[in-house]
Amino acid sequence: MSGRQLPLIAESVEALDRAVEAATTALLTRQQPDGHWAFELEADATIPAEYVLLTHYLDDRDIGLERKIATYLRRIRGEHGGWPLFHGGDLDISASVKAYFALKAVGDDPQASHMAEARQAILRHGGAARANVFTRTLLALFGQVPWTAVPVMPVEIMLLPRWFPFHLDKVSYWSRTVLVPLLVLMALKPQARNPQAVAIQELFLTSPLEVRDWPTARNDSAWGKAFRALDRALRVAEPYFPKAYRQRAIDRAMAFVAERLNGEDGLGAIYPAMANTVMMFDALGIGAQDPRRATARRAIDRLLVIGEDSAYCQPCLSPVWDTALACHALCEAGGAEAATRRAAEWLLARQETRIAGDWAARRPSLEPGGWAFQYSNPHYPDTDDTAAVVTALERIDAPAHRDAVALALRWLRGMQCTDGGWGAFDADNTHVHLNAIPFADHGALLDPPTADVGARCVSALAALGNPEDQSVRRGVEWLLCHQEVDGSWFGRWGTNYIYGTWSALAALNAAGVDSGGRPVRRAVDWLLSRQREDGGWGEDGRSYWDGQPHGIAAAATPSQTAWALLGLMAAGEVDHPAVARGIAWLLANRNDEGGWDEPQHTAVGFPRVFYLRYHGYRLFFPLWAVARYRNLVLGNRGRVLHGL
Q1: Pick the catalytic residue: 384, 385, 428, 452?
Q2: Please, what CATH class does the domain formed by 1-30+483-644 belong to?
Q3: Single pTM value for the model
Q4: Is 108 a catalytic site residue?
Q5: Which pLDDT band holds residue 240 (cuts at 50, 70, 90)?
C-alpha cells in the first residue's frame, strides 16, 4: 500500500478506490441528458399542505393528486401526533394546522385516529390561534379567522419612498416576492371558494372571534413599540384610505410582479411567491385562461414530485446548486471529465448577465454576472451559488471559462457588504429595525451577511484570484470576528455549526491563514469534540434555538460527517485519527448502490421556521470527502490545495 498509513481503517487503498468508484457511478447515473443534476428538494408538511389548500381556494382540484399528497402528509406525521419542521423534530403548530386542514379538505374523517391524535396535539400546544402570521393569513382567506388575526400590512406600502423606515428594497428577496402579491390579497380580502366548505374550528381553544391576543413578533425595543402602535392606528385608519391611492398601489404591485413573473419558473422561483401570485390574479378577476395566470399556475405544478402512491410539492428547485456541488465531488473523484464538461456547458448558459436585478438597488453600477439557484431567476442571482459555480468551472477547465469566471468574480466583489461579509442575494440588507414589525414573526425578513455565504465567497476570490486581494482580507477579518465562543461558525443555509465551520475552515485555508493559528485550532478542537463514538457527525435543527447544544443530534448523517471531514482536512488534519474514523464511518454506512441514505433535514431555509432536505447531499458530499481523503493520503500532502 503506497502513500500514508491509513490509521484505524482496516481496508486497503483499493477499498477506498472501490467506494469512490461506486459513489461516482451512483452520481453519474442521475445526470440529466443535457448535463445538469436536479435532485428533489424536500421541506416539511407546510408546502404540500398549502398546495392542497391552494387548489381548494381556486376550486381547481385534482382528486387523484391530492390523495397522493394526503398519503405523504400522513406518512411524515411525528410520533407526537402533529407535524415537525425537520426529521425527528418537535411538533410545529403552524405546519400541523396546515397539514390537518389539508387532510380534512381531502376528505379524511376528523374522527379517524390520525386526525384525532393530530387535533389533540395541536390543542395541547395552544390551538390554531398560536399559529404564525402566514398561517393565520391563509386561515383568514378561508374565513376561519377574522382579518384582525393578522397584523396590518396595507398595499400602500408599494408607494412608500426609499427613505421611509419600511421599504421593499430594505427586506430580503424572498420577503419581497412573497409580500408584494400578498399585499394585494390583504387589501382585497377575497374568500376561498372552498368547494367542500371545510372548516377547522375544532382546532381553536377559544372562538377566533373572541381571541384578542393573536401572537406577533414581540419586540420591546423602541422600534417594536412604535410598530405596534402603528399597527393599532392602521387598523382604524385603513378603511378610510383614499381609493385612488389604493388602486395606484395595487397597480404598482401588479407591475412589480409582471416584471419578475419569470415564465414557468415563477415569481422568485419559490412556491409561496408563486402561489400568492396566482391568488392575486384570481382576486383581481384575471381568469384562469389568461396567459399570465396560466403560466404562473404551471410554474407551481413544476414543483410537484409525484410517485406511484404519494406526492409532495417542493418549495423550489435547486439545479444550479446541485450541479455545481456534483461537479466538485466528481472533480475530486476524478475520471468523470466528460460528464463535468457537459455540466460546465449547462452552467455557463445560465449565468445571469442581462438583467440588473433587485440587488442593483444597493449596487447600481455593478455589472451582472452571478448565478441563481434555480433554472432561471434573473432578478435574483445569489453569491453562494455563484461562488460554488465559479470554483467548479475553474476545476473543470480554467482556460475555457476564464471570461465567465472573471465576470462572476467582479460581481462577487461588488456584492461584498460594507462590513466585509456577504449576504446571499443583496448587499447591506441589514435594516434590523424591521425585525420589530408585528408581521415579521418568522424572523427571516432580512438577508444579512452570514459565515457560510461569506466563507464561500472568500474561498472563490482567494482560490481564483489573489489571496491578498482587499476583498479577501476584509472577508477573512469578518469571519474571524464572527467565530463563535466555542470555536465554531454559524451555518445559515446548512445545519448548522458543522456546516458553518467547514465553510469557514475551507475559506481560511484558501486565503492562506495559518492552520496552526488560534482561530483554526479552536475550530478543529470544536469539530473533534463533536465527533460521535461511532465516528460520524450529526446535528439537527434544534441547534438554531437559544440554549440548545451545537453540533449534536440523535444520529450521524453522511453529509454532516462529510462536512466535518472536509473542514478538518482543510485545516491540515488529514493524519488525525478522527479523520480516519470519520472515513471509516462513511465506508461502513453505504447503501447497496454504493451511495448513502439520509432521511434527515441537513439544510435550512429559515432557522426555526423552515428546514430543507436536499436529496443530493447524501451523494455528493460523502463522495467528495472520501475522494479527498484518498487523494491527500496517496499524494503525501497535508494541505488542501483547492478553495473548497
Answers
A1: 384
A2: mainly alpha
A3: 0.95
A4: no
A5: confident
